[in-house]
Amino acid sequence: MIYYILAYPMSSKKNTTRSLRVLHKRRQESLKLLLRPEPIIIGNVYDVMRRCGNSSCHCAAKPGHRQTLLIYAEKGRRRCKFVRRQDAEWIKQAWLRYRDCKKALRELRALNSRELALLRVQLRWRDVRGNAV
Ligand SMILES: [Zn+2]
User: Fold this and answer.
1) Would you say 45 and 69 are in contact if contact means Cβ atoms under 8 Å apart?
2) Distance from the CA of 52 to the center of ligand 1, in angstroms?
3) Residue 132 counted as domain residue
4) How many whole angstroms from 86 Cα to the centroid of ligand 1?
5) pLDDT tens per residue, range 54-64
6) pLDDT computed for residue 86 by the predictor
7) Of 26, 66, 74, 109, which is least packed with CB atoms within 10 Å of its CB?
């Protein structure tokens, strides 16, 4: 729905008002997601294959053990940490929430841009000189 509105600007007052309402609704949805209280992890989370270092373990010859790696920034420096197996799931969930928040921020930026364009159109209609501008 939003992509249709972004791709095909409408020109009538009624359609502009309707588009603004749709944008407002989408904004509310993005804000709701951004203002949720659940913790997030700002960074990146990957699963990697790792060797444990035990020479008698199967990983000495074949691909190693799957482990979750957390990459984040601290005081401007990039940090990497292996995540304990029992923490991997909630860390991934928190990271996925962060990704959703990033997506919502991008959407807000797009909504702002479209909303400003529509509001400028509405302001021109209110101009006492009519649509002369
Ligand atoms: Zn091993």
Assistant:
1) yes
2) 4
3) no
4) 18
5) 999 999 888 78
6) 96
7) 74
